[in-house]
Specification:
With 324 residues, the protein is of the alpha/beta class. It is built from eleven helices and eleven strands. It has helices at 5-27, 45-61, 76-83, 97-105, 141-150, 165-177, 189-198, 212-216, 263-278, 280-288, 298-319, and strands at 34-38, 65-69, 91-96, 117-126, 128-132, 156-159, 182-185, 203-207, 221-225, 251-258, 291-293. The strands form three sheets. The protein has a six-stranded mixed β-sheet with strand order 2-1-3-10-4-11, sandwiched between helices.
C-alpha cells in the first residue's frame, strides 16, 4: 500500500525528530538537582566520601548533588531504591564493596545488583591493612602464616562486623593461605583498634585510615596491605599478595545509576567524576581520609563489579556466612 505523499513526509519527519529530541534532552542534562543515595548512616567513611564527591560533582555539573542516606541491611535498602528509580540520571547511588558481598550473603534480594544497575565510575579504593600490636612476634605475613600453620586454632585475627570488606579479607586469607585461625569480629572498627592498642588483641585487619596515626606514632605496626600493589601512603609496607599470590581485598566506592539510563547521561556523569578526581583538592581530601583513587571506565567498572561479586560469593560460601 502506498502512503499519500503528505502523510509519508509527516511520518518521516517524526522518525527523525525522536532521536533528535533525545539528543537535545541529553545535552541539557542536568537541568535540575541530582539525588545521590548512600546506603549507610551519615558520618561513616562511605558517607563522608560520598559528600566530598557530591560537592565536586555539583561544581562540575552546575547543579546541586544532594546526598540522601538510606541505611539498612548492609546497603541493600539504598541499592533497592536505585534499581527502582527512573533511569533519567537524577537519582544515583554511591555503591560500595558491601553490595558485591550482599549478592551472595542475602539469599532473597529483590534485585540483581550486577545486572540491574548502569555503572558510571568508581571513585576510591579503601586500603585494608593487617595491623598488629608491637608485641606481636611475627613480623611478616609469611611468618604469621607459618605461625598459624604450626599452631592451628591458636591465632586470633580480628575484623569489624560480618560482611564488611575487612571481615571478608580475613576469610579470604583463611581460604587462600589454608590457615586455621580464630576470626574475632567486632561490632565496630573503633573498638578493635582500641583493643589492639591496649594489647587485648594482637592482630587484626581493618581500614588504614583509622590506624595510620597510631602506626606513625609506633603504637601499632603495619604488617601488610591487602591491595594489589603497595600503597603510596605506606610505600614500605609489603602487600599480602607478595606472599600469597593473587590475594587482593579492598573496600571501594563509586557511582552507579539505574539500568536503562541513557549512555549520553552516563558519559556526562563519568566525565564529571574524572574531572573531580583530577582536582588536587579532592585528591588531598582522599589522602586525609587514608584512601586512594580508583579510576575505571563505565564498562570496566561494570566488569569490576561482576568480578568482585563472583570473588566474594566464593568467600561467603567458603565461610558459611549468614546475614546478622
Amino acid at each position: 500500500m502506498r502512503l499519500p505523499r503528505r502523510k509519508f513526509l509527516r511520518l518521516a519527519a517524526g522518525a527523525i525528530a525522536i532521536p533528535s529530541a533525545r539528543m537535545a534532552w541529553a545535552q541539557t542534562y542536568p537541568a535540575r538537582s541530582i539525588q545521590l543515595i548512600v546506603g549507610f548512616p551519615a558520618g561513616g567513611q562511605v558517607d563522608i566520601i560520598a559528600r566530598v564527591t557530591a560537592q565536586g560533582l555539583s561544581q562540575q555539573l552546575g547543579q546541586s548533588v544532594v546526598v540522601e542516606n538510606r541505611p539498612g541491611a548492609g546497603g541493600n535498602i539504598g541499592a533497592e531504591a536505585i534499581v527502582n528509580s527512573p533511569p533519567d540520571g537524577y537519582t544515583l547511588f554511591f555503591a560500595s564493596a558491601s553490595n558485591t558481598v550482599n549478592a551472595t550473603l542475602f539469599e532473597h534480594l529483590n534485585y540483581d545488583f550486577v545486572h540491574d544497575i548502569a555503572p558510571v565510575s568508581p571513585v576510591n579504593r579503601i586500603t585494608l591493612v593487617v595491623e598488629a600490636n608491637p608485641s606481636f612476634a611475627p613480623q611478616t605475613i609469611a611468618e604469621m602464616i607459618a605461625f598459624a600453620k604450626a599452631n592451628p586454632g591458636k591465632l586470633d585475627i580480628a575484623s569489624p562486623s560480618a560482611g564488611t570488606p575487612p571481615y571478608m579479607a580475613v576469610e579470604l586469607l583463611k581460604m587462600m593461605a589454608g590457615i586455621d585461625i580464630v576470626h574475632v569480629p567486632y561490632a565496630g572498627e573503633g573498638q578493635m583498634v582500641t583493643d589492639l592498642l591496649g594489647g587485648q588483641l594482637q592482630v587484626g585487619i581493618g581500614g588504614l585510615s583509622p590506624s595510620i596515626g597510631h602506626m606513625r606514632a609506633g603504637k601499632l605496626r603495619a604488617v601488610a596491605v591487602a591491595l594489589p600493589a603497595r600503597s603510596a601512603i605506606v610505600p614500605d609496607v609489603p602487600t599480602i599478595g607478595e606472599t600469597v599470590p593473587g590475594y587482593e581485598a579492598s573496600g571501594w566506592s563509586g557511582v552507579v545509576a539505574p539500568k536503562g539510563t541513557p549512555a549520553e547521561i552516563v558519559d556526562t556523569l563519568y566525565r564529571a567524576i574524572v574531572a573531580v578526581q583530577a582536582d588536587p583538592g579532592f585528591q588531598a581530601r582522599l589522602t586525609d581520609l587514608g584512601v586512594g583513587e580508583l579510576a575505571l571506565s563505565p564498562a570496566d567498572f561494570g566488569k569490576f563489579i561482576a568480578d568482585e561479586t563472583e570473588k566474594w560469593g566464593k568467600v561467603v560460601k567458603f565461610a558459611g556466612l549468614k546475614p546478622q
